[in-house]
């Protein structure tokens, strides 16, 4: 992947940096691997807004991704690398020897025509999925399971990768990009390599309209609101928040407040907290 700086022919393109999609080799998705995606507008199962500033955006189909990689000892050929509107990483379309097709997250270096497989005895190369017990120490992995057979949960975004540090007492110790070190059972599967599309972090939208296309509605700072709308609001001219610590519109601490539930069941697996 690469990025390109737009010429400043308009205010929206003055600082815009776009994806050039040069790494894509397939233009249209596999229809049998698409499902409808209903707009939830940031609401939870009760219908209440659980995430603000969400709504609208272009309609998109969901690409069914194989996060489990449970088709063992059957080699698959990479048909092409595709764009996925639901994530910032690329996806690869695989065709197995029995003509079944599946999508996987495209690791760095995987190209059309390559062959990948999954299982405990496959080769250690990007795109192959193995249990952590069969992966050498020091290998970079992605799409790592937290529980055996539940599918990959960790390191699924563009450029993400975990470092396998050690194995002891039936658990593997991995280091996350945040600096956190945690134990994962050696029967959990992981895919070798780092997720591709490394330049995703360098993309600059340049205008508000591109955010709206992604379903992101405008955000307004609390200090420019009235006191009845936000605890930071009010005051004459450009004033501060008037508090020792920033708070949410409902008065709860934010911006640095730890939100992880205390005494969570997975605390015992975390060796070093993230920085």
UniProtKB/TrEMBL annotation:
Domain Large ribosomal subunit protein uL2 RNA-binding: from-to ranges = 42-118
What are the alphabetically sorted keywords of the record?
Ribonucleoprotein, Ribosomal protein, RNA-binding, rRNA-binding
Signal peptide positions on this chain = none
Read off the PROSITE patterns from this record. RIBOSOMAL_L2
> Which GO-annotated molecular functions does the record name?
rRNA binding; structural constituent of ribosome; transferase activity
Give me the stretches of Basic residues compositional bias. Answer: 255-275
Q: Which InterPro entries match?
A: NA-bd_OB-fold, Rib_uL2_dom2, Ribosomal_uL2, Ribosomal_uL2_bac/org-type, Ribosomal_uL2_C, Ribosomal_uL2_CS, Ribosomal_uL2_dom3, Ribosomal_uL2_RNA-bd_dom
What Gene Ontology cellular component terms go with this record? large ribosomal subunit
Q: Where is the Large ribosomal subunit protein uL2 C-terminal domain?
A: 124-253
Spell out the residue ranges making up region: Disordered. Answer: 222-275
Q: Which GO terms describe its biological process?
A: cytoplasmic translation
Which Pfam family is one of those matched by this entry? Ribosomal_L2_N
Any idea what job this protein has? One of the primary rRNA binding proteins. Required for association of the 30S and 50S subunits to form the 70S ribosome, for tRNA binding and peptide bond formation. It has been suggested to have peptidyltransferase activity; this is somewhat controversial. Makes several contacts with the 16S rRNA in the 70S ribosome.
Q: Matching PANTHER family, A to Z?
A: LARGE RIBOSOMAL SUBUNIT PROTEIN UL2M, RIBOSOMAL PROTEIN L2
Its quaternary organisation is:
Part of the 50S ribosomal subunit. Forms a bridge to the 30S subunit in the 70S ribosome.
Q: Please report which protein family the annotation says this sequence is part of.
A: Belongs to the universal ribosomal protein uL2 family.
Matching HAMAP family: Ribosomal_uL2_B
**Protein name (database record):** Large ribosomal subunit protein uL2
- What species was this sequence derived from? candidate division WOR-1 bacterium RIFCSPHIGHO2_01_FULL_53_15
UniProt gene name: rplB
């Amino acid at each position: 992947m690469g990025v390109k700086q737009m010429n400043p022919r308009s205010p929206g393109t003055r600082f815009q940096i776009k994806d050039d999609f040069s790494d894509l080799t397939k233009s249209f998705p596999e229809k049998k691997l698409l499902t409808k995606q209903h707009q939830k507008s940031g609401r939870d199962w009760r219908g209440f807004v659980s995430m603000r500033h969400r709504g609208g955006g272009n309609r998109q189909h969901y690409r069914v991704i194989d996060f489990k990689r449970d088709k063992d000892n059957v080699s698959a050929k990479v048909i092409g690398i595709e764009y996925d509107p639901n994530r910032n990483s690329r996806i690869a379309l695989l065709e197995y020897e029995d003509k079944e097709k599946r999508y996987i997250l495209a690791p760095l270096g995987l190209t059309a025509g390559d062959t990948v497989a999954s299982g405990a005895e496959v080769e250690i190369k990007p795109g192959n999925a193995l249990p952590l017990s069969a992966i050498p120490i020091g290998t970079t992995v992605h799409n790592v399971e937290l529980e055996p057979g539940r599918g990959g949960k960790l390191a699924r975004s563009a450029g993400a990768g975990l470092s396998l540090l050690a194995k002891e007492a039936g658990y593997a110790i991995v280091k996350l990009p945040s600096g956190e070190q945690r134990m994962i059972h050696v029967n959990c599967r992981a895919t070798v390599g780092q997720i591709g599309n490394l330049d995703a972090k360098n993309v600059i939208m340049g205008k508000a309209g591109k955010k709206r296309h992604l379903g992101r509605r405008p955000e307004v700072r609390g200090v420019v609101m009235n006191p009845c709308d936000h605890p930071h609001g009010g005051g004459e001219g450009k004033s501060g928040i008037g508090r020792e610590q920033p708070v949410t519109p409902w008065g709860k601490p934010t911006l640095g407040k730890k939100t992880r539930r205390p005494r969570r069941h997975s605390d015992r697996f975390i060796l070093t907290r993230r920085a």
